[in-house]
Design a protein that fits this description.
- By secondary structure, this protein is an alpha+beta fold.
- About 50% of the residues lie in helices and about 10% in strands.
- The longest helix is centred in the C-terminal third of the chain and has 21 residues.
- The N and C termini lie far apart (about 70 Å).
């Protein structure tokens, strides 16, 4: 192969050979960089199904972007040879890096943390390595660690994946197959049993053992004797081989090397946490010699000893009081915390990343709920700013250092961790939580712990973790004299789990009618078991109101169920901000009563200021009332509390454009595109903002970058954008792809009506009339089904005007203003006023059109702007009129 070309890759030299294929150094002639090419085994070519599955799974591996993982660039084929294109790392393998007596202690932690972090990142993506060994770990010329061949053993789906001189292979079966390198296998691999992330943890333990001592823990004279040692032997503890090592390291390695997978760390993340805690002791000068070792991992560092005051237990109680929102019978306790107050200029900021679920996938809702409760607890603490959980959930941490996270989110501290819900055969239910608090800028651990508690203690545990964070940060509770101690939200664990399942659906990206109905079912089960479960009633009010708002079920029965949930929440906790928030959602989503919605949400904000969900709801209600300037101010505050969230940036950009802050709108629009590069709506909104500002070059640039989409609303926006640019061929192309009739929030998406408007702008009256006539028939049929839908009636009126039925058209548009949603929503009403101007132009009432257009220009709207007034082809029939010229001049 040396000297040959595979596609555009020039083979330079061989890098090695193994069971997973031959590896070559090559030059990518297109990009001018060196890469590693791994030629896949020949039998990959024979099975089309296997190839297709391989390529699908390879995409998941390619998405694993981490500084300590070698990147998989592409899966390609040339000359009948399938091959992988990977990052080329020049350096030494880990076994070449390890000296005979083991690595120096600080170098051990440096490489060990990098190694466990890399494997943990893969486990978080559902990827197992299956063949961890020193030859699959590289140390580059700068001394940085890189792990090779992640997921490749599984991708190749072959029994001898990773086979080399130290590997035993067997026939392909679901069980009874040995995969991997013998000296680094887990016992379950050696027995041919199914493997998961815990198998990688065992192999990690072997690597850590070898890095610490320079020895392999399992030895033998042959492959089979080594295999027997893996299954049978317990290696000598690392501190007995090397006495100067900290005793806690022996515990970590031993935990990795447990024969029973259930007794190991569940994923590499937990091992990484314990190594970090041990390194913190080393850095703080508390490095334990074995003879002075103590078993507790909770002992604070010397810098924190002074903060352990006698009132610490009371602090935890006070933290609970500041936390629980669904209180039923609060009592008062005195505040006696002796830490110094935090000035406004020095308020620490923390982000709580979603705790990792270490149990089966179906337990993910419980880990998510644990995270939410801790965030809620911390948010209630004065003197601490908490980044919104939306930001934390949406932020992609892959490949980013702590310093990069601190800069991107504007935080001082990061709280993360893992959660595992454990059940045994007797029905006993326990929870294991492992939190870790980091100083982000310094990339230094402040506090870590592991809790094993009964499920019934979960609420106390959540508050205890919050209290530990507050203590560790030195934050003083601002409560003057007293603080309420609030009861747990429910005593019924089945109700709590049903609530968490419903809440997880409402907060997830699973946005569909069936999912929201499932959430309602879960929440109804929760309140049936505990009729006083306040948070569940709040969530149930939101779920039922959402079914109305998203037009999945606007029946009186659904509205009544939403109202009943609000009433029950208010009865249980009338002074809770959540009760008022639930009422605001109901009035906004359910009744479209924006006055009552705003009153409710303002009261929620008074009770608990700076809650992003409350502030966002307030801003959206204000937009419906045409109070865009106030909404923009609130959304700018939300953007500070929720950094890095594309929808927030998008809504802020949209609102700023309406108030003609075009440069600010463009800045936030570009941020939305950067944060959500796969979401076409971010690009179309930024492009429409630029249309309103009169920046055609920016419009073209944003449209050129938009990802593909078949969404009718995206295609409708692209049709409008190209129409305003007078790019009629492009406008026609997008209009022809529209459906016959789909209702959207502001207008009706209609292929025939859109085509008619383009031909009208192109001054082709015959084609325009033909499409207007087709649109009229389609819209008339829809109007017969929904006679009270204002948007449908207005669109039908435009079609009537296009075919010359002037009186009917004017009667229709006037009627639309009295119908839902126009009669309730001032934002949507501006779009109907625009339709009225268009109709008046088409039926020969130009003077009235100019007058109504002038009135529309006095309002704030995104349907027309001064730049659009001056350039839009829609208004070409008016351009010769003096009154129109005066109107345009007045806008400049």
């Amino acid at each position: 192969m040396i000297g040959k070309m595979l596609a555009h890759y020039e083979i330079l030299r061989s890098l090695g050979r193994g069971g997973m294929g031959e590896v070559y150094l090559a030059r990518d002639t297109r990009l001018g960089r060196e890469v590693a090419l791994k030629l896949l085994p020949v039998d990959m070519r024979a099975d089309a199904g296997r190839r297709a599955r391989f390529e699908r799974e390879a995409q998941a591996v390619a998405a694993l972007n981490h500084p300590h993982v070698v990147t998989l660039y592409a899966v390609e084929e040339a000359d009948g040879l399938p091959f992988l294109v990977m990052e080329y790392v020049e350096g030494r393998t880990l076994d070449e890096e390890i000296p005979p007596g083991g690595l120096p202690v600080r170098r051990f932690f440096e490489l060990g943390l990098a190694l466990t972090e890399a494997v943990a990142a893969a486990h978080a993506k559902g990827i197992t390595h299956r063949d961890l060994k020193p030859r699959n770990v590289m140390i580059d010329r700068e001394g940085r660690l890189k792990v090779l061949d992640f997921g490749l053993a599984k991708l190749l789906d072959r029994p001898d994946a990773g086979a080399d001189d130290d590997t035993v292979a067997a026939d392909v079966t679901r069980e009874g197959t040995i995969v991997g390198t013998v000296a680094y296998m887990s016992p379950e691999q050696a027995e041919g049993k199914p493997v998961d992330s815990r198998s990688d943890v065992f192999s990690l333990g072997i690597l850590l053992y070898q890095m610490a001592t320079g020895l392999q823990p399992f030895k033998g004279d042959s492959q089979l004797s080594i295999l027997a040692a893996v299954l049978r032997d317990h290696p000598t503890p690392v501190v007995e081989v090397r006495p100067e090592l900290p005793r806690q390291l022996a515990r970590i390695v031993r935990r990795c090397l447990e024969k029973d997978p259930a007794r190991r760390y569940e994923t590499a993340r937990s091992a990484h946490y314990d190594l970090q805690a041990l390194r913190e002791e080393l850095d703080s000068g508390e490095f334990e010699k074995p003879e002075f070792a103590v078993p507790s991992a909770r002992r604070p560092g010397r810098r924190r000893v002074g903060q352990l005051v006698a009132g610490l237990a009371l602090l935890a109680v006070i933290a609970v009081g500041a936390v629980r929102l669904g209180a039923r019978k609060p009592t008062a306790v005195a505040s006696a915390v002796g830490t110094a107050p935090v000035s406004a200029a020095a308020v620490p900021t923390i982000v709580v990343f979603p705790f990792e679920n270490l149990g089966p996938p179906e337990d993910a809702y419980f880990a998510a709920g644990m995270t939410v409760e801790i965030v809620t607890s911390l948010t209630a603490i004065d003197g601490l700013r908490v980044v919104s959980r939306t930001s934390a959930q949406n932020y992609d941490r892959a490949g980013k250092s702590m310093q990069q996270i601190a800069a991107a989110l504007g935080v001082d501290y990061v709280l993360e961790g893992s959660v595992q819900w454990q059940r045994d055969a007797s029905g006993v239910s326990r929870v294991r939580v492992t939190p870790l608090l980091m100083d982000a800028a310094a990339d230094r651990q402040i506090w870590a712990n592991r809790y094993d508690r009964a499920m019934e203690e979960i609420f106390a545990l959540q508050s205890e973790i919050a209290a530990e964070v507050v203590r560790s940060l030195g934050v003083t509770l601002a409560a003057a004299g007293t603080a309420p101690v609030e009861a747990a939200p429910t005593r019924d664990m089945a109700a709590y789990h049903a609530y968490l399942r419903g809440q997880e659906i409402l907060d997830s990206s699973r946005f569909a009618r069936a999912d929201w109905l499932l959430a309602v079912d879960m929440l109804e089960k929760a309140v049936a078991r505990d009729p006083d479960f306040h948070e569940a009633w709040v969530a149930l009010a939101r779920a039922n109101s959402g079914l109305c708002h998203f037009d999945w079920d606007r029946t009186p029965e659904r509205l009544a169920r939403a109202k009943a949930a609000v009433d029950r929440a208010r009865a249980i906790a009338p002074d809770s901000y959540l009760s008022h928030y639930a009422a605001g959602v109901y009035y906004y989503w359910g009744l479209k009563d924006y006055d009552q919605a705003l009153a409710a949400v303002r009261q929620a904000d008074r009770i608990r200021p700076n809650v992003p969900d409350v502030m966002e709801l307030m801003a959206y209600v204000l937009r419906r009332q045409e109070s865009y300037a106030e909404a923009a101010v609130i959304l700018e505050r939300v953007a500070v509390l929720s950094p890095g969230v594309a929808p927030v940036a998008n809504h802020l950009a949209e609102t700023l454009a309406i108030v003609e802050r075009y440069e600010d709108a463009d800045r936030w629009g570009r941020q939305a595109m950067e944060l959500g590069p796969d979401e076409p709506m971010n690009f179309t909104i930024a492009a429409w903002n630029a249309i309103q500002a009169g920046w055609p070059e920016r419009v073209r640039r944003y449209v050129a970058e938009i990802p593909p989409s078949t969404d009718p609303e995206i295609r409708q926006r692209l049709f409008r954008i190209h129409l305003e640019l007078r790019d009629y061929p492009a406008a026609l192309r997008h209009a022809e792809q529209l459906p016959e009739c789909v209702e959207s929030q502001y207008e009706i998406i209609s292929r025939e009506l859109s085509l008619a408007m383009i031909y009208r702008a192109m001054d082709d009256p015959e084609q325009a009339r033909r499409h207007f006539a087709l649109a009229e028939r389609i819209l008339a049929a829809r109007m017969a089904e929904k006679p009270e839908a204002g948007n449908v009636v207005a669109a039908h009126a435009v079609a009537l005007a296009g075919i010359g039925r002037a009186d009917e058209a004017m009667a229709g548009i006037r009627r639309s203003f009295a119908l839902y949603p126009v009669n309730k929503d001032r934002w949507i009403a501006t779009w109907r006023q625009y339709d009225q101007v268009v109709i008046e132009m088409m039926v020969g009432r130009a003077e009235a059109a100019v007058a109504n257009l002038g009135e529309l220009m006095t309002r704030q709207t995104d349907v027309v702007s001064p730049a659009l007034l001056a350039s839009s082809p829609v208004f070409d029939p008016l351009r010769g009129r003096e009154d129109f010229k005066r109107l345009v001049a007045a806008q400049i």
